[in-house]
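Need Ferredoxin reductase family protein's 3D structure for a figure. Predict it.
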Amino acid sequence: MTTVQTTVPPPPAAVRPKVVARAGLYGVLAVNVAVVTVFFVQAGFASNALIVIGRLLGLYGALLMAFQLLLVARLPWLDRRIGMDRLTSWHRWVGFGLLWTLLGHAVFITFGYADSSGMDPVSQLVDLAETVEGVLRAVVALVLILVIGGVSARYARRRLAYETWHFIHLYTYLAVVLAFTHQVAVGTTFTASSFATAYWYGVWGVALGAVALGRLVLPLWRNMRHQLRVSAVVPESDNVVSIYMTGRDLDRLPARAGQFFLWRFLTKDRWWQANPFSLSAAPDGRTLRLTAKVAGDGTAGLRHLKVGTRVFAEGPYGAFTAMHRTRPEAVLIAGGVGVTPIRALLEEVEGHAVVIYRVSTDRDAVLYDELRELAQAKGAELHLVSGPVSPDKLAPHELVRLVPDIGDRDVFLCGPPPMMNAVLGSLRELNVPKQQIHFERFSLAG
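Structure prediction for Ferredoxin reductase family protein:
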């Protein structure tokens, strides 16, 4: 049964939450770069320019490593405003910057000391590792980061199972610990003053504390509080199933339409698998629902879940919500099973909405009856667009035909990556302002 949410959300904010969060992150990084530079200057310079550059790169590398932890901490305040996929993208690029910074640190330090001692660089590195406390740990940390960077490259990432990539990625935390102990042992700036020492302990404490809070404390606390269990398993088609869940105090769960969770169904054969699925209905304080398409052995087992199965859910995650509205009217564009967050959003969005649902054939239109009922209740327009990929039925002229005033609306988009890329291209051609386009690719870091 489809219900219509009657609570009117606040009007769009004058300053977008995404802008505030992004500016805050950039500002925090810039301030810390300045502080690190000041501490470095106060500590004095070595006589060898190569060593000076190497030490500065090492400090910046330590700061980037702490910033990396903040990006993957899954803190609700950042996630709701920026979104998991953007944070993941930033994590990726900061990670490659970190790799080159630490590699530069190792190269400049090694060649700098080799220049002073007259040894060849390889012998100098071996000598440092054998005679200076913490250097061997730093070498191991660098090797781990190089391996993690290698498997995170696009070519390797596409060929590795997610579980394999994730397991290798977990060694990042070991690299962080090794790098920190190296910094404590030999970092001249670390011990240059009590203020510098307190600062670095504070940086690492905040970074590691953020990870512990977002990745461990909050998920455990929320699951202990809400005690989710499967209440119904409903096949929607031959390869799509909806899972309904109930629990305690769900009206206190800070979830919104458009967000997703990492779901673990605690059965003997599934407890170790965490799959990201969007809510396919707006949270009503009593139940949660996800709708998933069979895409492998893991999702195929969903239709065999038993009522009463315990559920461990991490989240909610994502900035694909009405919180980021900038216009009073909206266009909701869904492709395939990407309709799930769109269907949930339709319950929550206020103002006139146009829903465009793109599928290969009419029988692929999952949840279409619910969409039609909900659209009628809310006075929204619903367009079912079916047919082969070519010709493009969501090309610019087709979008304008369906929504003549699309440039004056917020656009929410979710679907398969090729379809999303094509629609984003169409929106650019139509000069729809970037701040009015909302999408999420549901990618995860770390």
